# Entry
Amino acid sequence: MLSRLLKEVEKGERIVITRYGSPIAELTPYPVRNTEKIRKAILGLKEFQKSHSLGDAKIQDLIEEGRKD
# Structure
């Protein structure tokens, strides 16, 4: 029985296990990390940082200014 349920989960199915009609557990596929997508996002942020400068502004001053608005 469990092996059949796990095969369904491997296919992407979400299975809710109930006891007397009330949900007690859920079997879901394990989330797969897309490391390439994460790596590209980090590189993109680093490139953005290179081309956008705060100039003479200080982070704390910007935070306080934002709180005034």
In short: Residues 1-66 form one domain.
